[in-house]
Predict the structure of HTH cro/C1-type domain-containing protein.
Amino acid sequence: MKQPQISRIEGGGTVSTIPLLRRLARALDADLTINLTSHSNAA
């Protein structure tokens, strides 16, 4: 990834798709973890 791409992500100038987040995590030698949590108390 090039610096202008990183700047757009940091500035909120792009929609962060899962493939994009994977590439970013790979570039940073990091793991990508996505958690989904319910906001309702109904079962």
